[in-house]
């Protein structure tokens, strides 16, 4: 899906949403479409085979404080979310799956 | 008990068309690119109609129609607009049952709610704004003997409204009624999960509104919502949804220097002080119902009371009674008037809720009831059903901090008043809250101390017109549901008039 969206649209980014309706969905935009700032945290620059540049994954800093003990996976499921996320017309929806970070992962992040 | 026949079947009281185009300039207009998308009912998971897949070209056409209609509509008298709104309300009332069934079929919600809440509230909303617009007055300020400042209300012109899927008709009406009362023309984009019921509504009321005053463009957010929200031809954007899209809409609005109103959800605390359990009486029964309100509309409400905070001294007994009350909820066919909990609105919504049930367990929360997908039989087996779920845990857990938008409540105890307020306010959001106590002084202090726009006090999930609704903190900007919403749809025109024949003396 990321390769397809990259080909159709160009370089991509994610911003993790919160709040109602489609809150909790990772929103996928053209890189730079969503203006991040000092209230956001860059969690990762995802390297994906077949996508020339890394795809950035952002979250608001206040939300990150509440999420930082969990490991996030961007999954994709059939669906039709609202919002301006790029994948919706493809009949799929990005979805966050979470698990707790292990003791070892927490130690690594702390170090 | 009534079980309504699914729309489109023999004997149904309401039918959807097999296809809906855009509603532009009072007519149905096919999408410029000729594409449509399927609209499934969450009740069965099966498609019941197809919907125009709009793009920027369609949005422009709708904006042309709106700009064509706005000047004349904006010049109508408040009385004329009030009459139109009242006629809409009357027409809806005559068709209340049909609208209720149509909305339940599209959204998956229980028809007992659409019959008793969604549609009656929508009708009343039109009547409310029909009333307040007639009572609205400008002001005249006497600045000195010869100088007067007159203030007039003028419409903004053409406004954009982006509607959520949880109350497809009611949320549209919350935005349409004040915008129309104030004299604006509207381009409205329904959610792509629930794009059809608004068209059914307009099949009933479209003839009452001058062509072009309300235009509906369907489609996906990125293809139709974005060109609308970022257009330099709208004077305001109203949006209900989540925070990232809210920020993006505000960002577009900043490029065009226009105002926005945003309603972005919450994580509403529902606080039960121990005096609630002092007697096993009507009030105790009402409080238990108040707890169970987390399952209203399958939890797909921005103000879902999804954090229940129960005072330690009655925690075990009250919670046990609440679990029992929850387990007695009847879940099933949304078209059965006995059904209290229907289907989630979409598959991705279902998947999201299940992902929260998963992380809730991983974080150590205990499911006291529910906790998984509800398997249905027969025609409903393809629908999106989740068991009403009560989790016990701590406020730092993600299920206490994020809006799950499902029939899931997270419960924790609190020690005393200060602890209750601290936990209640320990959230990024501030849309709704509930306070339950027999001590009216305590109720007042709690209500004022909670940082949320609406504190239901010894009640929950009432949405009458004339009670302002909107958020503190990250829950948004603006107040709907009250005449003050007119301010969000009006400009202030000041005529500063000198009645003196003499020069000022400067030059």
TrEMBL record, chain B:
| Any GO MF annotation of the entry | oxidoreductase activity, acting on the aldehyde or oxo group of donors, NAD or NADP as acceptor
Q: InterPro entries of this UniProt entry? A: Ald_DH/histidinol_DH, Ald_DH_C, Ald_DH_CS_CYS, Ald_DH_CS_GLU, Ald_DH_N, Aldehyde_DH_dom
Kindly indicate whether the keyword Isomerase belongs to this entry.
Answer: no
Q: Which UniProt keywords apply?
A: Oxidoreductase
Q: Where is the active site?
A: 263
Q: Does the keyword Lipid metabolism apply?
A: no
The lineage's top-level taxon is: Bacteria
Where do the Aldehyde dehydrogenase domain residues begin and end? Answer: 31-494
Q: Which SUPFAM superfamilies match?
A: ALDH-like
PROSITE patterns given in the database record = ALDEHYDE_DEHYDR_CYS, ALDEHYDE_DEHYDR_GLU
One family from Pfam that matches here is Aldedh
Q: Which family does it belong to?
A: Belongs to the aldehyde dehydrogenase family.
Q: What is this protein called?
A: Aldehyde dehydrogenase
């Amino acid at each position: 899906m990321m390769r397809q969206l990259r080909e159709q649209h160009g370089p991509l980014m994610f911003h993790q949403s919160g709040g109602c309706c489609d809150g909790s969905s990772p929103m996928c935009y053209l890189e730079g479409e969503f203006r991040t700032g000092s209230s956001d945290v860059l969690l990762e620059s995802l390297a994906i085979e077949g996508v020339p540049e890394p795809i950035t994954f952002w979250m608001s800093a206040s939300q990150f404080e509440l999420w930082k003990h969990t490991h996030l996976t961007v999954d994709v499921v059939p669906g039709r979310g609202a919002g301006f996320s790029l994948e919706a017309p493809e009949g799929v929806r990005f979805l966050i799956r979470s698990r707790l970070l292990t003791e070892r992962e927490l130690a690594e992040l702390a170090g | 008990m009534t079980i309504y026949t699914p729309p489109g079947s023999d004997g149904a009281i309401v039918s959807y068309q097999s296809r809906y185009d855009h509603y532009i300039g009072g007519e149905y207009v096919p999408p410029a690119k000729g594409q449509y998308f399927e609209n499934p009912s969450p009740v069965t998971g099966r498609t019941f109609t197809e919907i125009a897949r709009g793009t920027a070209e369609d949005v422009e056409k709708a904006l042309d129609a709106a700009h064509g209609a706005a000047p004349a509509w904006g010049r109508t008298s408040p009385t004329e607009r009030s009459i139109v709104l009242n006629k809409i309300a009357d027409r809806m009332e005559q068709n209340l049952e049909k609208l209720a069934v149509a909305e339940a079929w599209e959204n998956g919600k229980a028809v007992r709610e659409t019959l008793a809440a969604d549609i009656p509230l929508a009708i009343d909303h039109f009547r409310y704004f029909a009333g307040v617009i007639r009572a609205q007055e400008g002001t005249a300020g006497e600045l000195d003997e010869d100088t007067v400042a007159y203030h007039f209300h003028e419409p903004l012109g053409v406004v954009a409204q982006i509607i959520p899927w949880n109350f497809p008709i009611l949320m549209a009406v919350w935005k349409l009624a004040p915008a129309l009362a104030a004299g604006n023309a509207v381009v409205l984009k329904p959610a792509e999960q629930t794009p059809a019921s608004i068209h059914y509504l307009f099949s009933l009321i479209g003839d009452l509104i001058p062509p072009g005053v309300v235009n509906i463009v369907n489609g996906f957010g990125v293809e139709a919502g974005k060109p609308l929200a970022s257009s330099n031809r709208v004077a305001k954007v109203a949006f209900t949804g989540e925070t990232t899209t809210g920020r993006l809409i505000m960002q577009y609005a900043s490029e065009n220097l226009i105002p926005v109103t945003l309603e972005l959800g919450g994580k509403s605390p529902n606080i039960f002080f121990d005096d609630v359990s002092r007697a096993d009486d009507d009030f105790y029964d009402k409080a238990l119902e108040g707890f169970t309100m987390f399952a209203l509309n399958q939890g797909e409400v921005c103000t879902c009371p999804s954090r229940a905070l129960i005072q330690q001294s009655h925690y075990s007994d009250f919670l046990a009674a609440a679990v029992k009350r929850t387990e007695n909820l009847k879940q099933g066919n949304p078209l059965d008037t006995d059904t209290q909990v229907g289907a989630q609105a979409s598959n991705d919504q279902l998947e999201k809720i299940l992902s929260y049930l998963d992380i809730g367990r991983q974080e150590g929360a205990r499911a006291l009831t529910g906790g998984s997908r509800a398997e249905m039989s027969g025609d409903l087996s393809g629908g999106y059903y989740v068991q009403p779920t009560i989790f016990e845990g701590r406020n730092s857990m993600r299920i206490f901090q994020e809006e799950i938008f499902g029939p899931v409540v997270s419960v924790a105890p609190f020690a005393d008043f200060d602890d209750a307020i601290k936990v209640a306010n320990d959230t990024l959001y501030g849309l709704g809250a509930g306070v339950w106590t027999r001590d009216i002084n305590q109720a007042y202090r709690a209500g004022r101390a909670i940082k949320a726009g609406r504190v239901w006090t010894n009640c929950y999930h009432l949405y009458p017109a004339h009670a302002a609704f909107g958020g503190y903190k990250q829950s948004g900007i603006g107040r709907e549901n009250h005449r003050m919403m007119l301010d969000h749809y009006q400009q202030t025109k000041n005529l500063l008039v000198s009645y003196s024949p003499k020069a000022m003396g400067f030059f």
